[in-house]
Amino acid sequence: MIRKKHPDVLRVVEYVLDKASQNETFSVQSATASKELNGLNRYQLARIMRDICLDPEDNGSLARYTTVDNNNTDNISCHWQLNANAYFSYLSYKSVQTATIALWVSSAALAVAIAGLALNSIGVFS
Questions:
Q1: Alpha-carbon distance values, 104 to 20, 49, 83, 111 (Å)
Q2: 3-class DSSP state for residue 77?
């Protein structure tokens, strides 16, 4: 789920992963018009995609399709994928998010266990 409060890079990573999982093509221009990446202009998106994506076609296609100029090559739709560094960094981010949720769940379970022991020690369950 893409949230507008997330940093721009994270929003772009999630957008690329979402489109790749649906096997959809998109261009830099079409992505800037999407509601998920609303607020990013073509130059910002192109710069981020140059850092996190693989060449969508042949060698040099990444630079070609993320160049914002009067040739409008940034309007050519492609199947985009994350590079290994961006993908594994995103997986690390998601595992930290999951660990944070697990911490809160385990803290709640600990509180319930302590409350149960306290009630048992005063004889509520006898």
A1: 32, 34, 32, 11
A2: coil
Q: What angle do CA 106, 109, 110 make, to 5 degrees?
A: 85
First-residue to last-residue Cα distance in the chain? 48
Task: With beta carbons less than 8 A apart as the criterion, state whether 55 and 62 touch.
Answer: yes
The one-digit pLDDT tens for each residue of the chain (126 residues) are: 566 678 899 999 999 999 999 999 999 999 999 998 988 999 999 999 999 999 999 899 999 999 998 888 889 999 999 999 999 999 999 999 999 999 999 999 999 999 989 888 887 766
Both structure tokens of 25:
């093509």
Q: Where are the beta strands (DSSP E) in the chain?
A: none
Contacting residues for 62 by C-beta, under 8 A, at least 6 apart: 49, 50, 53, 54, 55, 56
Q: What is the pTM of this model?
A: 0.82
Q: DSSP label at 14?
A: H
Q: How long is the chain? A: 126
